[in-house]
Fold this sequence. Notes:
- By secondary structure, the protein is an alpha+beta fold.
- It folds into two domains: 3-56 and 297-443, no CATH class; 61-269, no CATH class.
- The chain has helices spanning 3-16, 18-56, 79-87, 122-127, 161-164, 228-238, 274-283, 291-334, 336-344, 349-394, 410-435, 439-443; strands at 61-68, 74-75, 77-78, 91-99, 104-108, 111-115, 117-120, 132-135, 143-146, 155-156, 185-194, 197-211, 224-226, 260-261, 263-268, 286-290.
- Helix 1 (3-16) packs across helix 10, helix 2 (18-56) packs antiparallel against helix 11 and helix 8 packs parallel to helix 11.
- The radius of gyration is 36 Å and the shape is elongated.
- It starts with a helix and ends with a helix.
- The model has no long low-confidence stretch (mean pLDDT 84).
- It is found in: Cell membrane.
- Residues 310-435 form the ABC3 transporter permease C-terminal domain.
Amino acid sequence: MKWKDQFRFVRQNMKKNKSRVYMTVLATAMGCAFLIVLSSVGFGLHKSIVKDITGERIVNEIEIQGKEQKEDELSQITDKDINYFESIKKVRSVVRRQNLQQQGLFQTGSFQVNTETVVTHIPSEVKAGFELSKGRLPGKKDEILVGYDFAANLAPKDVKETEVYDKNGLVKDEYRYNGKLIGQPVQLLVKQNVDGKEVTKEIKLTIVGIAKKPAKKWMTDRKAFISEEILSEIEDFTGTSRGMINEPSNPNPVELDPRSYDEVKVYSKSLEDVEGISNELKDNHYSTYSVVDELNQINIIFTIVKIGLIFIGTIAILIASIGIYNTMTMAVTERAPDIGIMKAIGANPKTIKKIFLLESSYIGFLGALIGTAAAYGISFAVNAGLPLVVQKAFKEQPPENLMFSYIPVSLPLICMIICYGVTILSGARPARRATQVHVLKAMRREL
């Protein structure tokens, strides 16, 4: 019997018992939809977390804390190390920064702000992707760059802090600085304790550039970038490395290597190069961290979660397989005369078995298709409705761009493979029973 004839025979027989076949297909579709929707939660949360991590950090960035020494100690990164990092293949840039070891107080007119003050290598910053929203890069020692939120954090000097700041620690709108920053002269005030008294030095600077706005709304950047010459001037005044303050409890602070760096980041040419560079650095005893390390851990956890969810979803399909088994068993009983006629005219038992397996597969395939379509609809509804439910019921704002359910192409394929395997197993015994039907008994309509 040709495949075409077998398909026609199967469809004709299925039409004779539409209600039973329809309910069996529906049960299979529900099982498939349950498997896909349940598993899609794992895929969706995984995708959301990875997107959030890669969105808030530069994915090709490798932080270097130091070089491992004996007894779990880390030595500071120096110019010698920087030269080695830059010689590594597929490294695009090596950013190195030195931090002023006291809060820099910047004043302009009647406004002021305490903020982190940094010395950096500008060419490396630009290669790594540093951009300006306004202005230009410094060209002189007394020219500085400031972060995007520097102006928003300037507060009046003559107003009490309790009046200036809101409950979130931000400057209230009525007290914010509304003037221009580019070309604006500012004074950097640094201090030191000398013979028990606090002495202050004022350094005149000019703002020439403002950094680009941070990628995330909740991120703030109010740093001030000064030149190496200004840092040297501060060190001459304080008499300490990086402008450290002589605290009464510690009159002799630790001296830092003038050519060492407080913050070093290596940037690869692409995300694919991060792991290779990280491994080379680790082999040379550098303590590193990159977003890839975090992603690897997250991927392992979510892989286990997704496998577990698929396993739980498979139980629903196994339950639906009971219906397929029952439908096929009844089909063998009802079609005993037809089976007898087929055997009487010389039909091969393998052909009879194949017909019943084809019917069970057909039911499973229809159920999988309908279940997949339903799963996509449910997934869309969940992603659209869940944020509204969270806002209305719990009075909470859900995370930005949260994807609770995500169905990759692989998930319906996995579902169809599982469904096909289960339906074949469900129809195997009834199909084998059909080949054992006695011709004479079947002709007498007895099984």
